[in-house]
Amino acid sequence: MEPVVYLNGKWYPKNEAKISVFDHGLLYGDGVFEGIRVYQCLVFKLREHLDRLWESAHTILLKMPMTKKEMEEAIIETLRKNQFRDSYIRVVVTRGVGDLGLDPALCRRPTVFIITDKITLYPDSLYQKGLKIVTVPTVRNLPEAVNPSIKSLNYLNNILAKIEGKNAGCKEALLLNHQGYVAECTGDNIFMVKNQNGTQGVPLLLTPPVYLGALKGITRQAIIEIARDKKIAVEERILTRHDLFNADEVFLTGTAAEVIPVVNIDGRTIGAGKPGKVTGVLLKAFHALTRQDGVKYQIN
Ligand code: PMP
């Protein structure tokens, strides 16, 4: 059975879901999106993703053509139609079809589409061994320009960073902000663990505050809450590359990647050069949470 895609209120077979070349999402990257995961018929943190989608749209002055409830129903109906129990969902809302000018006022109504599919960013072996990443010259978007808190369709900045990372032989790239502080990776937030008083000490979990130039990741927030639950101290702190190089553990978080350890940054070995204990504890707790927290649906 060919999967169907939701497009503006109807479902089409994957190869027939088409949008106009005059859509401003395509012409100008004028739109917003979300990536959401489904685990065993539980749409993980769906409400949080919809809240962020609505906030992104509000900031770019895009009036959503439906309610959150309607969006939730459309997402679940798409999953049901495709009989998916585990999936990666991409929700996209563009400014809609306009003319060749920039003026969004000429776009009569936003285009909405929902794709349910699978995504594998990294092979299993990398979760066991850990990732090697590199800092790239492209800096994260300035908050005064397209604020990185907006999950906009304009990902060129991140794509350039990704290409630069791959050119340097790495699957993921670290972006600094314009001041040289650690921001995030191309599609993931970053955390470090620093053991107080040496390797046997009490772990402190650190992540940059989002105002320095990161997306307010939903996985990031889940990890912060899990850590606090486990009485692991967490702080949002301004971080430099030096801080990361001297961390005991580093890991990335994101909807697609979940929690992935980092063992080398710019040629420096991180901690023991293998995924750390705290990362393992958080990853396990995160997996458990994905089985409990979300909007449930049934497949007939
Ligand atoms: N940063 C960027 C730039 C992202 O695109 C994403 C989402 N892939 C993240 C961080 C992680 O956010 P979330 O945990 O909400 O997926």
Supply database-style keywords.
single chain; 8 helices; 300 residues; D-amino Acid Aminotransferase, Chain A, domain 2; nine-stranded mixed sheet; binds 4'-deoxy-4'-aminopyridoxal-5'-phosphate; D-amino Acid Aminotransferase, Chain A, domain 1; globular
Description:
The chain is an alpha+beta fold and 300 residues long. The protein has two domains: 4-117, Aminotransferase class 4, branched-chain amino acid transferase, N-terminal domain (D-amino Acid Aminotransferase, Chain A, domain 1, 2-Layer Sandwich); 124-289, D-amino Acid Aminotransferase, subunit A, domain 2 (D-amino Acid Aminotransferase, Chain A, domain 2, Alpha-Beta Barrel), CATH 3.20.10.10. It has eight helices and 16 strands. The strands form two sheets. Strands 7, 8, 9, 10, 11, 12, 13, 14 and 15 form a nine-stranded mixed sheet that branches. It has a seven-stranded antiparallel sheet with strand order 2-1-6-5-3-4-16. Strand 10 (189-195) and strand 11 (203-207) form a beta hairpin. The longest helix has 14 residues, at 46-59. The chain is globular and about 60 Å long. The protein starts with a strand and ends with a strand.
